[in-house]
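#lab-general

N.A. 3:47 PM
ok so I finally got the sequence cleaned up, no stray characters, all 635 residues accounted for. can someone with queue access submit it? mine expired

B.Y. 3:52 PM
send it over

N.A. 3:53 PM
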Amino acid sequence: MKKQNCLHIAVLVAAALGPVLPAVATAADPRSAVKVEFTPTPAPRADDEMLKTYTASVARVTFADGTMRDYPLAYVSLFKNTDRITRHKGTTYAAAQLFDVNMAPIMEPKGDPAIAETADANSLLKIGNRLFLVNHWEYDDVLADGQTANKAKDWYSRMPMGMSLSEIAQGRDGRLKVKSQQPIDFSAVNGTWILCFGSQTPWNTHLGGEEDYDLQFWPGEKVYPTTQAGLKAMSEVYFRGRQVANPYDYGYPIEVAVRDGGAYEITKHFAMGRGTWEMAIFASDGRTAFLGDDGAYSGLFMFVANKANLPKAGGTLYAAKWVQTSPDGSDGGTADFRWVKLGSSHYNEIKALIDKGLRVGDIFEYALTEKPGFVPTRAGTAETIWLKLKPGMETAAAFLETRRYAAYLGATTEFTKGEGVAINHADKKLYYAMSYIQGSMKAKDGGPADDIRLKENNAGATYTYDLAGGQVDTAGQPIASDFVPVRAYVEPALLGRPIKADALGNTADPEFVANTDNVFFSEKMRTLFIGEDSGTHQNNFVWAYNVDTKQLTRILSLAAGAESTGLQVVDHLGGHAYIMSNNQHQGDWIKSTPKELKERLEKRAGELWGRNRHGVAKYRLEAHVGYIGGLPGFK
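B.Y. 4:20 PM
back already:
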Protein backbone atom coordinates (compact mmCIF):
# COMPACT_ATOMS: atom_id res chain seq x y z
CA MET A 1 0.00 0.00 0.00
CA LYS A 2 2.81 2.45 0.81
CA LYS A 3 4.45 1.86 -2.55
CA GLN A 4 1.17 2.50 -4.37
CA ASN A 5 0.66 5.73 -2.42
CA CYS A 6 4.14 6.93 -3.37
CA LEU A 7 3.46 6.23 -7.03
CA HIS A 8 0.17 8.09 -6.79
CA ILE A 9 1.97 11.14 -5.35
CA ALA A 10 4.49 10.97 -8.20
CA VAL A 11 1.66 11.08 -10.71
CA LEU A 12 0.13 14.13 -9.01
CA VAL A 13 3.48 15.94 -9.04
CA ALA A 14 4.05 15.13 -12.73
CA ALA A 15 0.55 16.28 -13.61
CA ALA A 16 0.97 19.54 -11.74
CA LEU A 17 4.26 20.29 -13.48
CA GLY A 18 2.62 19.95 -16.90
CA PRO A 19 4.64 20.12 -20.10
CA VAL A 20 8.04 21.03 -18.66
CA LEU A 21 11.22 19.06 -18.11
CA PRO A 22 12.20 19.66 -14.47
CA ALA A 23 14.98 17.49 -13.04
CA VAL A 24 15.46 15.15 -15.98
CA ALA A 25 17.66 17.17 -18.30
CA THR A 26 21.28 16.20 -17.64
CA ALA A 27 24.63 16.32 -19.38
CA ALA A 28 25.15 13.51 -21.87
CA ASP A 29 26.71 10.38 -20.39
CA PRO A 30 29.79 9.35 -22.41
CA ARG A 31 29.29 5.68 -21.51
CA SER A 32 27.42 3.38 -23.87
CA ALA A 33 23.91 2.47 -22.68
CA VAL A 34 23.06 -1.10 -23.71
CA LYS A 35 19.84 -2.01 -21.89
CA VAL A 36 16.80 -0.30 -20.42
CA GLU A 37 13.73 -1.23 -18.42
CA PHE A 38 10.98 1.16 -17.40
CA THR A 39 8.96 1.52 -14.22
CA PRO A 40 5.23 1.92 -14.87
CA THR A 41 3.25 5.14 -14.92
CA PRO A 42 -0.01 4.41 -13.05
CA ALA A 43 -3.28 4.99 -14.90
CA PRO A 44 -4.87 8.28 -13.79
CA ARG A 45 -7.80 8.34 -11.37
CA ALA A 46 -8.37 11.95 -10.30
CA ASP A 47 -9.96 14.44 -12.71
CA ASP A 48 -6.91 16.72 -12.95
CA GLU A 49 -4.67 13.72 -13.66
CA MET A 50 -7.00 12.62 -16.44
CA LEU A 51 -6.76 16.02 -18.14
CA LYS A 52 -2.94 16.02 -18.32
CA THR A 53 -0.37 14.35 -20.53
CA TYR A 54 2.40 13.11 -18.26
CA THR A 55 4.82 10.35 -17.33
CA ALA A 56 5.87 9.18 -13.87
CA SER A 57 8.17 6.46 -15.22
CA VAL A 58 11.83 5.93 -14.51
CA ALA A 59 14.23 4.41 -17.03
CA ARG A 60 16.63 1.96 -15.37
CA VAL A 61 19.62 1.94 -17.71
CA THR A 62 22.44 -0.58 -17.82
CA PHE A 63 25.73 0.52 -19.38
CA ALA A 64 28.34 -1.54 -21.21
CA ASP A 65 30.58 -1.56 -18.11
CA GLY A 66 27.81 -3.25 -16.10
CA THR A 67 26.87 -0.21 -14.01
CA MET A 68 23.26 0.93 -13.70
CA ARG A 69 21.56 4.31 -13.29
CA ASP A 70 17.97 5.48 -12.94
CA TYR A 71 16.70 8.31 -15.13
CA PRO A 72 13.34 9.92 -14.25
CA LEU A 73 11.37 10.76 -17.38
CA ALA A 74 9.08 13.70 -18.17
CA TYR A 75 6.87 14.72 -21.05
CA VAL A 76 7.95 17.88 -22.88
CA SER A 77 5.66 19.87 -25.15
CA LEU A 78 7.74 21.41 -27.91
CA PHE A 79 4.79 23.44 -29.14
CA LYS A 80 1.02 23.45 -29.44
CA ASN A 81 -1.00 23.63 -32.62
CA THR A 82 -2.23 27.07 -31.53
CA ASP A 83 1.21 28.55 -30.76
CA ARG A 84 1.98 31.42 -33.12
CA ILE A 85 5.41 30.26 -34.29
CA THR A 86 4.99 29.52 -38.01
CA ARG A 87 6.53 32.18 -40.23
CA HIS A 88 5.42 32.56 -43.84
CA LYS A 89 5.93 35.57 -46.13
CA GLY A 90 6.75 37.81 -43.20
CA THR A 91 3.64 36.90 -41.18
CA THR A 92 3.39 34.76 -38.05
CA TYR A 93 0.67 32.09 -37.88
CA ALA A 94 -0.43 29.33 -35.54
CA ALA A 95 1.66 26.17 -35.93
CA ALA A 96 -1.30 24.22 -37.38
CA GLN A 97 -2.67 26.97 -39.61
CA LEU A 98 -3.98 25.49 -42.87
CA PHE A 99 -3.10 27.05 -46.23
CA ASP A 100 -4.51 26.98 -49.75
CA VAL A 101 -2.69 26.29 -53.01
CA ASN A 102 -1.26 29.83 -53.02
CA MET A 103 -0.15 29.44 -49.40
CA ALA A 104 -2.75 31.94 -48.25
CA PRO A 105 -4.31 31.12 -44.84
CA ILE A 106 -7.66 29.33 -44.89
CA MET A 107 -10.33 30.96 -42.72
CA GLU A 108 -13.45 29.45 -41.15
CA PRO A 109 -16.96 30.84 -41.85
CA LYS A 110 -17.04 32.91 -38.66
CA GLY A 111 -13.71 34.57 -39.35
CA ASP A 112 -11.48 32.28 -37.30
CA PRO A 113 -8.28 30.88 -38.80
CA ALA A 114 -8.57 27.20 -39.78
CA ILE A 115 -6.26 25.52 -37.26
CA ALA A 116 -6.03 21.72 -37.08
CA GLU A 117 -6.18 20.06 -33.66
CA THR A 118 -4.62 16.83 -34.91
CA ALA A 119 -0.84 16.70 -34.54
CA ASP A 120 0.32 13.40 -36.02
CA ALA A 121 3.56 11.99 -37.47
CA ASN A 122 7.00 13.21 -36.40
CA SER A 123 10.37 12.83 -38.08
CA LEU A 124 13.24 14.32 -36.09
CA LEU A 125 16.11 14.31 -38.59
CA LYS A 126 19.73 15.35 -38.36
CA ILE A 127 20.68 17.00 -41.65
CA GLY A 128 24.36 17.94 -41.71
CA ASN A 129 24.96 19.66 -38.40
CA ARG A 130 21.38 20.85 -37.97
CA LEU A 131 18.21 19.28 -36.57
CA PHE A 132 14.85 19.46 -38.32
CA LEU A 133 11.42 18.17 -37.39
CA VAL A 134 8.77 17.31 -39.96
CA ASN A 135 5.35 16.94 -38.37
CA HIS A 136 1.88 16.18 -39.79
CA TRP A 137 -1.50 17.77 -39.26
CA GLU A 138 -3.95 14.95 -39.92
CA TYR A 139 -7.41 16.52 -40.34
CA ASP A 140 -9.47 19.45 -39.07
CA ASP A 141 -12.58 18.13 -37.37
CA VAL A 142 -13.60 20.86 -34.92
CA LEU A 143 -14.19 24.50 -35.81
CA ALA A 144 -13.39 27.30 -33.40
CA ASP A 145 -17.10 27.63 -32.57
CA GLY A 146 -17.18 24.00 -31.43
CA GLN A 147 -19.05 22.54 -34.40
CA THR A 148 -17.62 19.52 -36.13
CA ALA A 149 -16.53 20.53 -39.60
CA ASN A 150 -18.64 18.02 -41.51
CA LYS A 151 -21.85 19.13 -39.75
CA ALA A 152 -21.37 22.89 -39.95
CA LYS A 153 -23.63 24.62 -42.46
CA ASP A 154 -21.87 25.63 -45.69
CA TRP A 155 -18.58 24.17 -44.51
CA TYR A 156 -16.40 21.24 -45.49
CA SER A 157 -15.44 17.77 -44.38
CA ARG A 158 -11.97 17.40 -42.85
CA MET A 159 -10.18 20.05 -44.98
CA PRO A 160 -7.00 20.03 -47.12
CA MET A 161 -4.10 19.43 -44.76
CA GLY A 162 -0.39 20.15 -44.40
CA MET A 163 2.89 19.60 -42.58
CA SER A 164 5.24 21.86 -40.65
CA LEU A 165 9.03 22.00 -40.93
CA SER A 166 10.79 23.19 -37.77
CA GLU A 167 14.44 23.72 -37.10
CA ILE A 168 15.25 22.34 -33.65
CA ALA A 169 17.98 23.33 -31.20
CA GLN A 170 19.41 20.79 -28.76
CA GLY A 171 20.82 22.05 -25.47
CA ARG A 172 23.80 20.44 -23.80
CA ASP A 173 21.39 19.12 -21.18
CA GLY A 174 19.32 17.42 -23.90
CA ARG A 175 16.43 19.88 -23.99
CA LEU A 176 14.95 20.46 -27.44
CA LYS A 177 13.33 23.70 -28.54
CA VAL A 178 12.03 25.21 -31.76
CA LYS A 179 14.34 27.74 -33.43
CA SER A 180 12.10 28.45 -36.41
CA GLN A 181 9.13 26.96 -38.21
CA GLN A 182 7.58 27.15 -41.67
CA PRO A 183 4.61 25.50 -43.39
CA ILE A 184 5.45 23.02 -46.16
CA ASP A 185 4.07 24.00 -49.56
CA PHE A 186 2.34 21.06 -51.32
CA SER A 187 1.07 22.99 -54.33
CA ALA A 188 3.50 21.16 -56.65
CA VAL A 189 1.65 17.90 -55.84
CA ASN A 190 -1.86 19.43 -55.81
CA GLY A 191 -2.11 19.47 -52.02
CA THR A 192 -2.68 16.69 -49.51
CA TRP A 193 -5.57 14.90 -47.81
CA ILE A 194 -5.57 13.36 -44.29
CA LEU A 195 -1.91 13.13 -43.31
CA CYS A 196 -1.59 10.32 -40.79
CA PHE A 197 1.41 8.43 -39.38
CA GLY A 198 4.87 8.32 -40.96
CA SER A 199 8.38 6.89 -40.82
CA GLN A 200 12.00 7.76 -41.46
CA THR A 201 13.66 6.23 -44.52
CA PRO A 202 17.06 4.49 -44.49
CA TRP A 203 18.30 7.44 -46.56
CA ASN A 204 17.27 9.96 -43.85
CA THR A 205 14.08 11.51 -45.21
CA HIS A 206 10.51 11.69 -43.94
CA LEU A 207 7.90 9.33 -45.41
CA GLY A 208 4.31 10.22 -44.53
CA GLY A 209 1.06 8.37 -45.02
CA GLU A 210 -1.72 10.08 -47.00
CA GLU A 211 -4.77 8.37 -45.55
CA ASP A 212 -7.41 9.44 -48.05
CA TYR A 213 -10.22 6.94 -47.40
CA ASP A 214 -12.74 9.74 -48.06
CA LEU A 215 -11.66 9.85 -51.71
CA GLN A 216 -11.74 6.10 -52.43
CA PHE A 217 -15.44 5.59 -53.08
CA TRP A 218 -17.25 5.38 -56.43
CA PRO A 219 -20.52 6.76 -57.82
CA GLY A 220 -23.40 4.56 -56.68
CA GLU A 221 -21.77 3.39 -53.45
CA LYS A 222 -23.64 4.35 -50.29
CA VAL A 223 -20.66 6.24 -48.89
CA TYR A 224 -19.86 8.08 -52.11
CA PRO A 225 -21.13 11.40 -50.62
CA THR A 226 -18.00 11.46 -48.43
CA THR A 227 -15.87 11.42 -51.58
CA GLN A 228 -17.92 14.25 -53.05
CA ALA A 229 -17.49 16.28 -49.84
CA GLY A 230 -13.74 15.70 -49.86
CA LEU A 231 -13.34 16.67 -53.49
CA LYS A 232 -15.48 19.76 -52.85
CA ALA A 233 -13.16 20.78 -50.01
CA MET A 234 -10.07 20.39 -52.20
CA SER A 235 -11.67 22.15 -55.18
CA GLU A 236 -13.30 25.06 -53.36
CA VAL A 237 -11.10 25.57 -50.30
CA TYR A 238 -7.65 24.48 -51.47
CA PHE A 239 -7.85 25.42 -55.17
CA ARG A 240 -10.26 28.33 -54.50
CA GLY A 241 -12.55 27.12 -57.29
CA ARG A 242 -9.87 27.51 -59.96
CA GLN A 243 -9.26 23.76 -60.32
CA VAL A 244 -11.35 20.62 -59.86
CA ALA A 245 -9.62 18.11 -57.60
CA ASN A 246 -8.70 14.73 -59.09
CA PRO A 247 -9.11 11.84 -56.59
CA TYR A 248 -6.14 10.05 -58.18
CA ASP A 249 -3.85 12.85 -56.94
CA TYR A 250 -4.31 11.63 -53.35
CA GLY A 251 -3.58 8.49 -51.35
CA TYR A 252 0.18 7.91 -51.67
CA PRO A 253 3.25 7.74 -49.44
CA ILE A 254 4.68 11.27 -49.41
CA GLU A 255 8.42 11.79 -49.08
CA VAL A 256 9.79 15.04 -47.65
CA ALA A 257 13.53 15.29 -48.24
CA VAL A 258 15.00 18.06 -46.08
CA ARG A 259 18.23 19.61 -47.29
CA ASP A 260 21.10 21.00 -45.19
CA GLY A 261 20.01 24.61 -45.58
CA GLY A 262 16.39 23.91 -44.62
CA ALA A 263 15.01 23.64 -48.15
CA TYR A 264 12.95 20.56 -48.99
CA GLU A 265 11.71 18.42 -51.88
CA ILE A 266 8.30 16.72 -52.03
CA THR A 267 7.52 13.43 -53.83
CA LYS A 268 4.28 11.48 -53.88
CA HIS A 269 5.37 7.91 -54.59
CA PHE A 270 2.74 6.85 -57.14
CA ALA A 271 4.49 3.53 -57.83
CA MET A 272 3.92 2.44 -54.21
CA GLY A 273 0.18 2.30 -54.85
CA ARG A 274 -2.86 4.32 -53.86
CA GLY A 275 -4.73 3.49 -50.67
CA THR A 276 -5.70 4.65 -47.21
CA TRP A 277 -2.13 4.58 -46.02
CA GLU A 278 -1.69 5.01 -42.29
CA MET A 279 1.98 4.92 -43.12
CA ALA A 280 4.70 3.23 -45.16
CA ILE A 281 8.03 2.03 -43.78
CA PHE A 282 11.15 0.78 -45.58
CA ALA A 283 13.33 -2.04 -44.30
CA SER A 284 17.07 -1.46 -43.94
CA ASP A 285 17.64 -2.73 -47.50
CA GLY A 286 16.10 0.50 -48.78
CA ARG A 287 13.98 -1.56 -51.16
CA THR A 288 11.26 -3.39 -49.21
CA ALA A 289 8.40 -1.29 -47.86
CA PHE A 290 5.27 -2.24 -45.94
CA LEU A 291 2.12 -0.16 -46.04
CA GLY A 292 -0.42 0.03 -43.20
CA ASP A 293 -3.89 0.20 -44.77
CA ASP A 294 -6.48 1.88 -42.54
CA GLY A 295 -10.26 1.52 -42.62
CA ALA A 296 -12.63 -1.40 -43.11
CA TYR A 297 -12.11 -4.21 -45.62
CA SER A 298 -8.47 -3.26 -46.05
CA GLY A 299 -5.37 -5.22 -46.99
CA LEU A 300 -1.68 -5.72 -46.28
CA PHE A 301 0.63 -4.46 -49.03
CA MET A 302 4.32 -4.70 -49.80
CA PHE A 303 6.41 -2.73 -52.28
CA VAL A 304 9.81 -3.94 -53.51
CA ALA A 305 11.80 -1.20 -55.23
CA ASN A 306 14.05 -1.80 -58.21
CA LYS A 307 16.87 0.27 -56.69
CA ALA A 308 17.83 0.76 -53.06
CA ASN A 309 16.89 4.15 -51.58
CA LEU A 310 15.19 5.23 -54.81
CA PRO A 311 11.48 4.27 -54.87
CA LYS A 312 10.81 6.81 -57.61
CA ALA A 313 12.67 4.51 -59.99
CA GLY A 314 9.83 2.03 -59.58
CA GLY A 315 9.26 -1.45 -58.30
CA THR A 316 6.71 -4.19 -57.79
CA LEU A 317 3.59 -4.02 -55.65
CA TYR A 318 2.20 -7.07 -53.81
CA ALA A 319 -0.91 -7.80 -51.73
CA ALA A 320 -1.12 -10.46 -49.02
CA LYS A 321 -3.34 -13.53 -48.98
CA TRP A 322 -4.16 -14.58 -45.40
CA VAL A 323 -4.21 -18.38 -45.03
CA GLN A 324 -5.55 -18.99 -41.54
CA THR A 325 -3.95 -21.78 -39.52
CA SER A 326 -5.81 -21.36 -36.21
CA PRO A 327 -9.28 -22.89 -35.75
CA ASP A 328 -11.26 -20.09 -34.10
CA GLY A 329 -8.98 -17.05 -33.82
CA SER A 330 -9.76 -16.44 -30.16
CA ASP A 331 -6.14 -15.46 -29.51
CA GLY A 332 -5.98 -13.06 -32.46
CA GLY A 333 -5.43 -15.97 -34.84
CA THR A 334 -2.45 -17.39 -36.67
CA ALA A 335 -1.93 -17.46 -40.41
CA ASP A 336 0.52 -18.06 -43.20
CA PHE A 337 0.91 -15.47 -45.95
CA ARG A 338 0.90 -15.88 -49.71
CA TRP A 339 1.73 -12.87 -51.88
CA VAL A 340 -0.21 -11.78 -54.97
CA LYS A 341 1.69 -9.66 -57.46
CA LEU A 342 -0.38 -6.64 -58.48
CA GLY A 343 2.03 -5.11 -60.96
CA SER A 344 5.32 -3.39 -61.67
CA SER A 345 5.73 0.23 -62.66
CA HIS A 346 7.54 3.48 -61.96
CA TYR A 347 6.76 7.07 -61.00
CA ASN A 348 6.65 8.56 -64.49
CA GLU A 349 4.31 5.91 -65.86
CA ILE A 350 1.73 6.29 -63.08
CA LYS A 351 1.95 10.08 -63.07
CA ALA A 352 1.21 10.05 -66.79
CA LEU A 353 -1.93 8.00 -66.16
CA ILE A 354 -3.07 10.46 -63.48
CA ASP A 355 -2.34 13.48 -65.67
CA LYS A 356 -4.27 11.81 -68.49
CA GLY A 357 -7.39 12.27 -66.39
CA LEU A 358 -8.35 8.61 -65.97
CA ARG A 359 -11.45 7.83 -63.94
CA VAL A 360 -12.61 4.58 -62.42
CA GLY A 361 -14.94 3.92 -65.34
CA ASP A 362 -11.90 3.88 -67.61
CA ILE A 363 -10.30 1.12 -65.53
CA PHE A 364 -13.18 -1.13 -64.49
CA GLU A 365 -16.64 -1.98 -65.54
CA TYR A 366 -18.51 -2.20 -62.26
CA ALA A 367 -21.96 -3.09 -61.02
CA LEU A 368 -23.76 -2.73 -57.69
CA THR A 369 -25.55 -6.05 -58.10
CA GLU A 370 -24.40 -9.47 -59.26
CA LYS A 371 -23.53 -9.62 -62.95
CA PRO A 372 -22.27 -12.58 -65.04
CA GLY A 373 -18.54 -12.41 -65.78
CA PHE A 374 -17.91 -9.90 -62.99
CA VAL A 375 -15.91 -10.60 -59.80
CA PRO A 376 -17.56 -9.78 -56.43
CA THR A 377 -15.29 -7.69 -54.17
CA ARG A 378 -15.34 -5.77 -50.93
CA ALA A 379 -12.80 -3.01 -50.45
CA GLY A 380 -13.21 -0.13 -48.05
CA THR A 381 -16.81 -0.80 -47.00
CA ALA A 382 -19.20 -3.67 -46.27
CA GLU A 383 -20.78 -3.10 -49.67
CA THR A 384 -20.09 -5.69 -52.39
CA ILE A 385 -19.11 -4.33 -55.80
CA TRP A 386 -18.87 -6.52 -58.91
CA LEU A 387 -15.87 -5.71 -61.11
CA LYS A 388 -14.59 -6.50 -64.58
CA LEU A 389 -11.20 -5.14 -65.60
CA LYS A 390 -11.11 -3.36 -68.93
CA PRO A 391 -8.52 -4.56 -71.49
CA GLY A 392 -5.03 -3.16 -71.00
CA MET A 393 -5.81 -1.50 -67.66
CA GLU A 394 -3.82 -3.82 -65.38
CA THR A 395 -1.22 -1.18 -64.45
CA ALA A 396 -3.79 1.53 -63.82
CA ALA A 397 -5.79 -0.84 -61.63
CA ALA A 398 -2.76 -1.95 -59.62
CA PHE A 399 -1.48 1.52 -58.78
CA LEU A 400 -4.59 3.72 -58.84
CA GLU A 401 -7.18 1.29 -57.44
CA THR A 402 -4.78 -0.80 -55.40
CA ARG A 403 -7.11 -2.27 -52.79
CA ARG A 404 -9.90 -3.00 -55.30
CA TYR A 405 -7.50 -4.72 -57.67
CA ALA A 406 -6.07 -6.78 -54.80
CA ALA A 407 -9.58 -8.04 -54.01
CA TYR A 408 -10.22 -8.64 -57.72
CA LEU A 409 -7.12 -10.87 -57.95
CA GLY A 410 -7.99 -12.85 -54.82
CA ALA A 411 -5.76 -11.20 -52.20
CA THR A 412 -7.26 -10.66 -48.75
CA THR A 413 -9.12 -7.40 -48.14
CA GLU A 414 -10.69 -8.32 -44.81
CA PHE A 415 -8.46 -6.49 -42.33
CA THR A 416 -10.07 -3.83 -40.13
CA LYS A 417 -8.27 -0.67 -39.08
CA GLY A 418 -4.72 -1.60 -39.99
CA GLU A 419 -2.51 1.10 -38.50
CA GLY A 420 1.20 1.48 -37.75
CA VAL A 421 4.00 -0.81 -38.94
CA ALA A 422 7.43 -1.33 -37.35
CA ILE A 423 10.41 -3.56 -38.20
CA ASN A 424 12.70 -5.54 -35.88
CA HIS A 425 15.63 -6.25 -38.18
CA ALA A 426 17.71 -8.28 -35.72
CA ASP A 427 14.95 -10.85 -35.24
CA LYS A 428 13.39 -10.39 -38.69
CA LYS A 429 9.97 -9.46 -37.30
CA LEU A 430 7.35 -7.04 -38.54
CA TYR A 431 4.82 -5.53 -36.12
CA TYR A 432 1.44 -4.44 -37.47
CA ALA A 433 -1.18 -2.64 -35.40
CA MET A 434 -4.74 -3.88 -35.85
CA SER A 435 -6.77 -1.35 -33.93
CA TYR A 436 -9.95 -3.44 -33.88
CA ILE A 437 -10.73 -7.09 -34.63
CA GLN A 438 -14.30 -6.84 -35.82
CA GLY A 439 -16.54 -6.70 -38.88
CA SER A 440 -14.62 -8.00 -41.87
CA MET A 441 -12.19 -9.94 -39.66
CA LYS A 442 -14.95 -12.12 -38.20
CA ALA A 443 -16.07 -15.43 -39.67
CA LYS A 444 -19.08 -15.33 -41.98
CA ASP A 445 -19.13 -11.53 -42.22
CA GLY A 446 -21.24 -11.67 -45.38
CA GLY A 447 -18.50 -10.78 -47.84
CA PRO A 448 -17.63 -12.68 -51.01
CA ALA A 449 -14.47 -14.04 -49.35
CA ASP A 450 -13.92 -15.35 -45.82
CA ASP A 451 -10.14 -15.68 -45.45
CA ILE A 452 -9.99 -14.12 -41.96
CA ARG A 453 -12.16 -15.88 -39.37
CA LEU A 454 -11.39 -14.47 -35.93
CA LYS A 455 -13.20 -13.94 -32.65
CA GLU A 456 -14.25 -10.31 -32.23
CA ASN A 457 -12.02 -8.21 -29.99
CA ASN A 458 -12.93 -4.53 -29.76
CA ALA A 459 -9.62 -3.77 -28.06
CA GLY A 460 -7.63 -5.00 -31.08
CA ALA A 461 -4.14 -6.49 -31.20
CA THR A 462 -0.58 -5.87 -32.30
CA TYR A 463 0.41 -8.62 -34.72
CA THR A 464 3.88 -10.08 -35.16
CA TYR A 465 4.86 -11.26 -38.65
CA ASP A 466 7.89 -13.46 -39.25
CA LEU A 467 10.02 -12.29 -42.19
CA ALA A 468 12.01 -14.46 -44.60
CA GLY A 469 13.84 -14.39 -47.89
CA GLY A 470 13.67 -16.83 -50.80
CA GLN A 471 9.90 -16.42 -51.26
CA VAL A 472 7.81 -16.62 -54.42
CA ASP A 473 4.49 -15.02 -55.31
CA THR A 474 1.30 -16.95 -56.07
CA ALA A 475 2.36 -17.25 -59.71
CA GLY A 476 5.62 -18.93 -58.65
CA GLN A 477 7.83 -15.92 -59.45
CA PRO A 478 10.65 -14.96 -57.04
CA ILE A 479 10.12 -11.97 -54.72
CA ALA A 480 13.37 -9.98 -54.64
CA SER A 481 13.44 -9.30 -50.90
CA ASP A 482 14.81 -10.87 -47.73
CA PHE A 483 11.99 -9.30 -45.68
CA VAL A 484 8.82 -11.02 -46.88
CA PRO A 485 6.14 -11.67 -44.20
CA VAL A 486 5.41 -15.41 -44.07
CA ARG A 487 3.53 -15.99 -40.79
CA ALA A 488 1.25 -13.97 -38.48
CA TYR A 489 0.45 -14.36 -34.79
CA VAL A 490 -0.18 -12.28 -31.64
CA GLU A 491 2.03 -12.40 -28.58
CA PRO A 492 -0.21 -12.78 -25.48
CA ALA A 493 0.71 -9.44 -23.90
CA LEU A 494 -0.19 -7.59 -27.12
CA LEU A 495 -3.78 -8.82 -27.38
CA GLY A 496 -6.42 -6.36 -26.18
CA ARG A 497 -8.60 -7.40 -23.25
CA PRO A 498 -12.19 -6.13 -23.37
CA ILE A 499 -14.03 -5.69 -20.05
CA LYS A 500 -17.42 -4.47 -18.88
CA ALA A 501 -17.39 -0.69 -18.47
CA ASP A 502 -15.69 0.38 -15.24
CA ALA A 503 -16.32 3.55 -13.23
CA LEU A 504 -14.28 5.65 -15.67
CA GLY A 505 -15.94 4.21 -18.76
CA ASN A 506 -13.04 1.95 -19.76
CA THR A 507 -14.30 -1.02 -21.76
CA ALA A 508 -10.82 -2.55 -22.10
CA ASP A 509 -8.47 -3.46 -19.27
CA PRO A 510 -6.33 -0.34 -18.64
CA GLU A 511 -3.40 -2.57 -17.62
CA PHE A 512 -3.04 -3.81 -21.21
CA VAL A 513 -2.78 -2.17 -24.62
CA ALA A 514 -6.09 -1.35 -26.29
CA ASN A 515 -6.57 -0.29 -29.91
CA THR A 516 -2.95 -0.01 -30.97
CA ASP A 517 -2.24 2.77 -33.45
CA ASN A 518 1.38 3.97 -33.62
CA VAL A 519 4.20 1.46 -33.26
CA PHE A 520 7.96 2.01 -33.35
CA PHE A 521 10.71 -0.53 -32.69
CA SER A 522 13.99 0.58 -31.10
CA GLU A 523 16.77 -1.77 -32.18
CA LYS A 524 19.11 -0.43 -29.47
CA MET A 525 16.60 -0.69 -26.61
CA ARG A 526 15.13 -3.97 -27.90
CA THR A 527 11.75 -2.40 -27.21
CA LEU A 528 8.55 -2.04 -29.19
CA PHE A 529 6.88 1.26 -28.32
CA ILE A 530 3.11 1.34 -28.77
CA GLY A 531 0.71 4.31 -28.86
CA GLU A 532 -3.06 3.95 -28.54
CA ASP A 533 -6.01 5.45 -30.41
CA SER A 534 -8.62 3.85 -28.26
CA GLY A 535 -12.38 3.99 -28.14
CA THR A 536 -12.14 1.68 -25.13
CA HIS A 537 -9.69 3.53 -22.83
CA GLN A 538 -10.73 6.83 -21.28
CA ASN A 539 -7.08 7.92 -21.32
CA ASN A 540 -4.86 6.60 -24.07
CA PHE A 541 -1.36 5.43 -23.21
CA VAL A 542 2.10 4.87 -24.66
CA TRP A 543 3.58 1.48 -23.75
CA ALA A 544 7.05 -0.08 -23.86
CA TYR A 545 7.21 -3.80 -24.67
CA ASN A 546 10.60 -5.44 -24.24
CA VAL A 547 10.77 -8.21 -26.84
CA ASP A 548 13.29 -10.21 -24.80
CA THR A 549 11.70 -10.12 -21.33
CA LYS A 550 8.11 -9.82 -22.70
CA GLN A 551 7.53 -7.07 -20.12
CA LEU A 552 4.78 -4.57 -21.03
CA THR A 553 5.02 -1.20 -19.23
CA ARG A 554 2.88 1.93 -19.44
CA ILE A 555 5.21 4.95 -19.77
CA LEU A 556 2.91 7.83 -20.74
CA SER A 557 -0.69 8.81 -20.02
CA LEU A 558 -2.35 11.19 -22.46
CA ALA A 559 -4.97 13.83 -21.72
CA ALA A 560 -8.48 12.35 -21.65
CA GLY A 561 -9.96 11.90 -25.11
CA ALA A 562 -6.61 12.45 -26.83
CA GLU A 563 -5.06 10.01 -29.28
CA SER A 564 -1.39 9.07 -29.06
CA THR A 565 0.38 10.03 -32.29
CA GLY A 566 3.78 10.92 -33.74
CA LEU A 567 5.68 8.00 -32.19
CA GLN A 568 9.36 8.01 -33.14
CA VAL A 569 12.32 6.84 -31.09
CA VAL A 570 15.70 8.48 -31.63
CA ASP A 571 18.20 6.17 -29.96
CA HIS A 572 21.18 8.51 -29.94
CA LEU A 573 21.36 12.22 -30.64
CA GLY A 574 24.10 14.27 -29.02
CA GLY A 575 24.35 11.80 -26.15
CA HIS A 576 20.59 11.66 -25.52
CA ALA A 577 17.63 9.54 -26.61
CA TYR A 578 14.11 10.79 -27.31
CA ILE A 579 10.69 9.20 -27.59
CA MET A 580 8.77 11.58 -29.82
CA SER A 581 5.07 11.58 -28.96
CA ASN A 582 2.17 13.92 -29.75
CA ASN A 583 -1.44 14.10 -28.69
CA GLN A 584 -4.43 15.12 -30.77
CA HIS A 585 -8.17 15.83 -30.36
CA GLN A 586 -8.07 15.86 -26.53
CA GLY A 587 -11.58 16.09 -25.13
CA ASP A 588 -12.96 13.69 -27.72
CA TRP A 589 -14.59 11.53 -25.05
CA ILE A 590 -15.20 7.83 -25.69
CA LYS A 591 -18.82 6.70 -26.07
CA SER A 592 -18.84 4.81 -22.77
CA THR A 593 -17.86 7.88 -20.69
CA PRO A 594 -20.26 8.20 -17.74
CA LYS A 595 -22.40 11.33 -18.08
CA GLU A 596 -21.43 12.70 -14.68
CA LEU A 597 -17.70 12.19 -15.40
CA LYS A 598 -17.98 13.89 -18.78
CA GLU A 599 -19.70 16.90 -17.24
CA ARG A 600 -17.02 17.16 -14.53
CA LEU A 601 -14.14 16.88 -16.98
CA GLU A 602 -15.61 19.43 -19.39
CA LYS A 603 -16.20 21.90 -16.55
CA ARG A 604 -12.71 21.41 -15.14
CA ALA A 605 -11.13 21.69 -18.61
CA GLY A 606 -12.84 25.05 -19.05
CA GLU A 607 -11.50 26.22 -15.69
CA LEU A 608 -7.93 25.11 -16.33
CA TRP A 609 -7.55 25.97 -20.03
CA GLY A 610 -10.01 28.82 -20.40
CA ARG A 611 -12.40 29.38 -23.30
CA ASN A 612 -12.19 31.13 -26.65
CA ARG A 613 -14.46 33.92 -27.92
CA HIS A 614 -17.13 31.36 -28.81
CA GLY A 615 -17.14 29.91 -25.30
CA VAL A 616 -15.46 26.67 -26.39
CA ALA A 617 -12.94 25.17 -23.95
CA LYS A 618 -9.45 25.60 -25.42
CA TYR A 619 -8.69 22.11 -24.13
CA ARG A 620 -10.79 20.67 -26.96
CA LEU A 621 -9.01 22.75 -29.58
CA GLU A 622 -5.41 22.10 -28.51
CA ALA A 623 -2.86 19.48 -29.53
CA HIS A 624 0.76 19.04 -28.48
CA VAL A 625 3.87 18.12 -30.44
CA GLY A 626 6.43 16.81 -27.98
CA TYR A 627 8.60 14.05 -26.59
CA ILE A 628 9.43 11.96 -23.55
CA GLY A 629 12.80 13.24 -22.34
CA GLY A 630 15.41 12.24 -19.80
CA LEU A 631 17.00 9.22 -21.49
CA PRO A 632 20.73 8.86 -22.20
CA GLY A 633 21.83 7.93 -25.70
CA PHE A 634 21.99 4.29 -26.83
CA LYS A 635 24.84 3.78 -29.29
